[in-house]
Design a protein that fits this description.
Two copies of one chain form a homodimer. By secondary structure, chain A is an alpha/beta fold. Chain A has three domains: 168 residues, FAD/NAD(P)-binding domain; 105 residues, FAD/NAD(P)-binding domain (3-Layer(bba) Sandwich), CATH 3.50.50.60; 106 residues, FAD/NAD-linked reductase, C-terminal dimerisation domain (Enolase-like, domain 1). In chain A, 30% of the residues lie in helices and 26% in strands. Chain A has 14 helices and 24 strands. In chain A, the strands form five sheets. In chain A, strands 1, 2, 5, 6, 7, 8, 18 and 19 form an eight-stranded mixed beta sheet that branches. Chain A has a five-stranded antiparallel beta sheet with strand order 20-21-24-23-22, sandwiched between helices. The longest helix of chain A is centred in the last third of the chain and has 20 residues. Chain A is globular, with a radius of gyration of 24 Å. Chains A and B meet through helix 3, strand 3, strand 4, helix 4 and helix 9 of A and helix 3, strand 3, strand 4, helix 4 and helix 9 of B. Strand 4 of chain A pairs antiparallel with strand 3 of chain B, so a sheet runs across the interface.
Chain lengths: 475, 475
């Protein structure tokens, strides 16, 4: 078969998944486990943004810094320092020199066919991959993720800024690093490069950081960045950027000041890049931010309603730009595709990612960590809930004080007073990432607070903050 | 008033709590919050065993060792070592030179009357404290805890061994330390002293360690102790002990071998010391291990049934010898006493520590940590449940691998297949302590596994092991 001949018979699979990041991998794997033949299409790296440019490398970079500080903060543990070369070497191990052969080996092992190339929908159940046609007997799943968004500030693109990709993979530690943005990538990478020795300037247009979190979370990270020597400027609007070989990158700000850096990281959001997907061929819609519109079952919405053979999961549908939420959607989607193909009943509970609407869990791996799940206070009020908020300092329990001398942090739960259940929680502090999951279980399981009172945390773990929260609530 | 005159009018309070450890403090505090006057009686230190001889000092000792190793196990963090003097100084800060003035200040602050002395029941609602009579209008709460048990092995007591008290408070790091026992105290302290430079020999009568946990937990700790250079001997029965000023402490074993050490820690269990409580004056019963027999509402059981003015909470009732479970009972007890005194309805759900029967959560702060909650596989089978066990290695998720290079550990959940809910969980590995609480919430909240599937852990936290467990289960 000559794939360059359009008339050639298309390749045919039960399911075609577009995008081989963790989300596509999970959708493909679940469909395969249901007995379907599956092709997965990837234009760059199997494993995707998360494995090579986001979650894995950034956490590989952050963990040695956290572990070093954790040691430094405990009396009786001495001498720990960050070794920048070791940190970069560790990151390189995780991204394997941008070689995805490990992930490709897994696809081979489980029997998912990998097609390298750029995919585009041609029509119902039909995809083109670099000129080759691939037909899906049952379903096409779009799991194409998102790309860094670079705003059209004059001169910015010409200055060839770093995005999360370059920041997560570089071996260069610039003397001066500028960061535009105040979200997760901006905060995490500012802290990494400050710890590795860069002089870091963060320019945020908003008044604070991490605007999707509770306000106190962003405030804690702002304080920490300044503690780490980062020059954090809020309300800063970059109006022009230019790069000069000798000087570096010059940023002009709306207040007429300038900042000169050696390298510039732009971390101002994501772009789903859906213009290239061929959605128009099947009437699929996108929202005003460019994300594919889906229903609760992740079926793409067209002009005449659901498109029950075309799904969009993960970043591309814009519901929750988080690997774990995309994987959650992907598992439900793969199961759904499998059940539908067999003509089996589709278990609404299991094959619908209904917990997304409760508010996704997320951890920002800064120091302090920010771990949140469910709704913020404001989100809960915006939904019209009768809200009660409980705030306590983390050192209200003994566990955090044993974890680090002078432990500082904050915990909040958001309670739906009418239902008597938790609807949100946020933890700020060292090593709080794993304090989060009990909140997610309580929220998703709708465990009454009166029952949570009987879930006793072990003394003196950090988790005893849960007892303090419920005591403060009045139980 | 002359307290030495028996005829003197007794002191009178609404509630008299015997024992001012965390358990007694919590019972007293909850009764006080219900508007009752409360006296608390303490013969030694306010704050109790936990604050001065157990939880707090041992975790203060262990944390610098854990933090140092966590740093050493991550590429990019270099140079960390344990500073033994710093470790001991840290512990001393936590136990405040065995000065309980901080805790006494809290009692004063909240308005609980402290009576120093040894208490003994004289009759209904009447207690004697070193010759002074103290009457309770409503209730007496026994929260006297437990003491180290020292077996009657020939020569052992004469050799003046350490118990948990001396091990937790000493500034001396013996060149050679012997440990008799294989439970929590034995394992934690063997590891501490090995890390501080002692040559440690652990003699366990049983075949393994931590016999109340899943077998793989004790195996992991045994492996770790040996890794740390501890000479661990299982099936070892000490038949005679002698101390000689020049030689040290000589232990003779049943197999005719001998072990010579400079100091000997006996960690073979606890003794509730109930013989001194005057229980016979009110007909209170103890079980064959000496623990006070109570009903589900913690009311002491006498020959004619409940004694609805006399409660026993914490170690002394033998239900769960863990500070957090004692505090849990104490909160329920204090609330119950308060409600009963007011003639208010006693909320059965809130004022009864019903979750105790589900199996208490516990963390052993060894390296690796052992975190368990609910039932072990065997306990679940013994209850006649239709059990399914899911075992996975901790490195099945990415989080542990990011936490430490070459992370090793194990996770198990025990599922009640008929009910479709979790009934037990055990985690073994570095930093697993806070992976436990989601399991406790799920067990206590009886959250169906099908619902837990929608509680998504954040990538790449350690908590993602929850996803792997449920996937392995077949969801």
């Amino acid at each position: 078969m000559d794939p360059t001949t359009p008339a050639a018979q298309p390749l045919e699979f039960d399911v075609v998944v577009v995008g081989a990041g963790p989300v596509g991998e999970n959708a493909a794997d679940r469909a395969r486990k249901a007995g379907l033949s599956v092709a997965i299409i990837e234009k760059h790296l199997v494993g995707g943004e998360c494995s090579f440019y986001a979650c894995s490398p950034t956490k590989a970079l952050l963990r040695p810094i956290h572990a070093t500080r954790a040691s430094q903060r405990v009396q009786g543990s001495v001498g720990a320092t960050v070794d920048p070369v070791g940190v970069l070497d560790r990151r390189d191990t995780w991204i394997n020199g941008l070689d995805d052969s490990g992930q490709v080996g897994w696809l081979d092992h489980v029997g998912i066919t990998l097609l390298r190339g750029t995919a585009r929908l041609l029509g119902e159940r039909l995809v083109e991959v670099d000129g080759r046609r691939v037909a899906a007997r049952h379903a096409v799943v779009l799991a194409t993720g998102s790309e860094p968004f670079v705003p059209d500030t004059p001169g910015l693109r010409e200055a060839e800024p770093w995005t999360n990709r370059e920041a997560a993979t570089t071996r260069r530690i610039p003397e001066r690093l500028g960061v535009i943005g105040g979200g997760v990538v901006a905060c995490e990478m500012a802290q990494v490069f400050a710890a590795l020795g860069s002089e870091v300037t963060v320019l945020v247009r908003a008044d604070g950081l991490l605007s999707r979190n509770e306000e106190f979370a962003g405030q804690a990270v702002a304080k920490a960045l300044r503690r780490d020597g980062v020059d954090l400027r809020t309300g800063a609007q970059v109006t022009r950027v230019s790069r000069d070989g000798a000087v570096g990158v010059t940023l002009e700000l709306a207040d007429a000041s300038t900042v000169v850096v050696d390298e510039l990281l732009v971390a101002t959001g994501r772009d789903p890049g859906t213009g290239r997907l061929g959605l128009e061929s099947v009437g699929g819609r996108t929202d005003d931010r460019g994300y594919v519109v889906v229903n609760d079952d992740m079926e793409v919405q067209g002009p005449s309603g659901d498109t029950p053979w075309l799904y969009a999961v993960g970043d591309v549908n814009g519901q929750a730009l988080l690997t774990h939420m995309g994987k959650y959607q992907a598992r439900a989607c793969g199961d759904r595709v499998g059940a539908r193909a067999k003509g089996a009943a589709m278990d609404g509970e299991r094959m619908r990612p209904w917990a997304t609407a409760l508010g996704p869990p997320q951890v920002v791996f800064t120091d302090p960590e920010i771990a949140s799940t469910g709704l913020t206070e404001q989100q809960a009020r915006d939904r019209g809930l009768t809200v009660r908020v409980v705030d306590i300092p983390m050192d209200a329990a003994a566990g955090p004080g044993l974890q680090a001398e002078g432990y500082q942090g904050q915990a909040r739960i958001v309670v739906d007073e009418d239902a008597g259940v938790l609807v949100g929680a946020t933890f700020v502090g060292q090593d709080v990432a794993d304090l989060l999951h009990p909140a997610t279980v309580a929220i998703v399981g709708k465990v009454p607070l009166a029952t949570l009172w009987h879930a006793v945390p072990s003394y003196p773990t950090m988790s005893e903050i849960w007892l303090r929260l419920l005591e403060e609530y009045g139980l």
